[in-house]
Give the backbone structure.
Amino acid sequence: MTLTDGVFVLQGDLLIGTVGALGAPQGTGQVIDLSKVARFDTAGAWVVIRLEQQMQAAGITPQIVGAKPMQADLLATLRDCLPGPEMAQKSSWSVATWLDHFGRRTVAAVQDVLAMVGFLGQVVVIIAGLILRPGRIRWTAIAHHMQQVGLNAVPIVSLMAFLIGVVLAFQGAAQLRQFGAEVFVVDLIAISILRELGILLTAIIVAGRSGSAFTAAIGSMKMREEIDAMRTLGLDPVEVLVAPRVIALILMLPVLGIIANFAGLFGGAIMSWIELGVSPGVFQARLVSNTDVWHFGVGLIKAPFFALIIGLVGCFQGMQVKGDVESLGRLTSTSVVQAIFLVIAADAVFSVFFAMVGV
């Protein structure tokens, strides 16, 4: 590399094995001449671009002359791949910055909601088509997912509900004993578990257990391009992957809710017997005489809707996974958070609705 009259003249071979001998440029110039360069690779292009950046840093607008078409293309490609200068971060908070951030997040949230609503419509249409044409239903896949989301979840759901019943009885006894109304702990346990906590906590456990599994499984298939292969073969991924999972959840979540109700009542009865001396016979009689059947029905009515929410969110986030592992982990966490939030929001809506209709 030589500097003549403000022109850096590069000559010979600019290859990865020879650029180390060039050394640092001495002096300043405005032109880089590549007319005498014989062979040129990415390392040589990197040297030219570094020289160009140093000239720009010195306030000089560099010119590259004498480059052959292939050399110019390589320089342009490498220049495009380099990271641009980082934008300076504002040190002070401003209303405009907050509004810009809030607006972008709002638009992204609205787009996600619209996409999920569209996905819901697609799933509903496909399930309705399967009901009209039962021969297309994949019973083996449905049975497999029923085992995964239902049978395998029975131990954790039962234990959770049993402990919730124990806690409700213990805490209720501590408060009701002050007023001599220990027997009302049966009503407290029955209404809380049958109407709200049994199905709600079951749905939360299923969202964390099965919803994340749906996202991970479908996302892994998306990363391995198996979903694209399905489309190439003329198969609808929603019909093959999403519909069996959603149907299995809709069928099994009410069953898990019933199991959770019985386990919670059993735990409450045991703790009432130990803490308050309410015998199992008295507990049963009080439960049957003072508990409306609608308390049990309200929980079962919620179950299919909670199942639809969990299956929809888990499968939707799985379909959004890109080709990298980072997106898989991020969207798996997102699916759990969204499913739990939507389940709790739906439970609040149901509570208001049933209170308005007097159920």
